[in-house]
Amino acid sequence: MMNCEKHLNKTITKILFLFGVLVFAACTKEQKKDDFIARVNDSYLTREEFSSLVDTTSLSTTQKDQVIKNWIYQEILYQKASKKGITKREDYKNILKKSSYELAAAMLIEDYLSGEETNYSDDDLKNYFEQNKNYFRAASDLYLLNKVAFSSEEKAIKFRTLALESDWKKSVNVFSSDSTMLKNSASDLIEENNIYPAQLSRIIKEFYPEEISIVITEKPGYYSIVQLLSKFGKESIPPFEIIKSKIEKRFLAEKKKMLVEEYLKELYSQNEIEIK
Question: Would the pTM count as exceeding 0.85?
Fold first, then answer.
């Protein structure tokens, strides 16, 4: 059954990207701006427009430079396409019209779903899980892991030593405010082919539950330690509590799909429709 939420997000992302390439450049004001970040001929990227493209507070300088470069490339391509008459072609106009219909429809459905509240309990999720267990059967070996990573090898070694002498949680609490701790993930269920680096993938197969790895250098300045909590073999079905978030996500997606179907039926009944 199609994941409705994922489909809607992909649809909106795809259409917005298309509009970003084909329309954003055309909508840029032609007059010269006094406060701009980049310019391609008579088209300007102002700071206000730049902020509307991305959340600048969460981007590094390198990422911001890449966004600006992408805008420049889009402008160059759009202006060249315009000079060649592409924006006046019927196929271009048809694509633009079709995209505007799809965008409006996707946004309408998104607005509709945002106003619909889905109430459910853990019992609802458990019942759904029991009725749809095959959806959650493992396609490969799964590993339930704790993982931390440090920018300092010395701190990583100290963390591991403390974890071995006491326990993992205590060690995490001790180092939780340490600025060199780059990552702290608990009870992550990971497929075998998604375990990185390869060195960890090889050694973890021989681990026993609660066993802690050596300090692994994933890349310069990134030192990680992993603890195996549990392993689930291929074709097995992990317990409800382990995959509850995955169950909940699928449950909600199906509920939203049903809401959309009911909404479409309602709209269908409200319009004059004729099929020949």
Answer: no
Question: Of 205, 198, 206, 192, whose CA–CA distance to 141 is shortest?
Answer: 192
User: How many independent structural domains does the chain possess?
Assistant: 3
Q: In one letter, which amino acid is 179?
A: S
- What domain range includes position 178? 138-232
Question: Which stretches does DSSP call E strand in the chain?
Answer: 36-40, 43-46, 142-150, 181-191, 216-219, 222-232
**Which domain CATH number covers 194?**
3.10.50.40
Tens of pLDDT, residue by residue, the chain (276 residues): 444 455 545 555 555 555 554 444 444 444 455 678 899 998 998 888 888 887 777 778 888 889 899 999 999 999 999 999 999 999 999 999 999 999 999 999 999 999 999 999 999 999 999 999 999 999 999 999 999 999 999 999 999 999 999 999 999 999 999 999 999 999 999 999 998 888 888 889 899 999 999 999 988 999 999 999 999 999 999 999 999 999 999 999 999 999 999 999 999 999 999 999
Structure tokens at 47: 């700071």
